[in-house]
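Protein entry
_____________
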Amino acid sequence: MPKVSQAHLEARRQQIIDAARALFATHGFARTSMTDLVDASGLSTGAIYRYFRGKDEIIVAICEQSSGALPETLTAETIDAFLQRTRRMAREEGHARLIAQIYAEAAISPQLATLVEHQVEELRTAVAALLPGRPPAQGQQIAEAFVALCHGYTQQLAIRGDLDPAPFTAALVEITQV
């Protein structure tokens, strides 16, 4: 039997993650079965279990691939572009619903909570680094509020479906200009 390349293994793993991401965004974690993942991925049950022991591991894998694509500077234009990207991902990919599911699951899963908490801390640190010339405590406070407002916008997108980012952009610009 020919040996399967590492690239092939990674592609199959990603195929499972992509199928799960789409299903979880539309049906939630609890309403998505492994059978649903088999059907959506086009792979066999055995193939999925080769890469993941269950849905919990798939959820963690999705979180590990998160993209915290912050702007390089915090101006009105870059913040608006960041929120417009978030809005587009919510509309086109169900990203906001997926994030809502992840946060809900993190509330009851210590392993996922640790991962999410670490990612949020990295995001706050990255935002604080974009606030030069501020005392560290003030930069951390602004970063905390910035991240909370961004997450709030994402949660609102998950519930309301679409939402103009303009008031969120204005608020984020205001707190970063303090």
Q: What stands out?
A: The chain has a mean pLDDT of 92. The chain is about 75% helix and 0% strand. The longest helix spans residues 136-160. The chain has two domains: 6-63, 67-176.
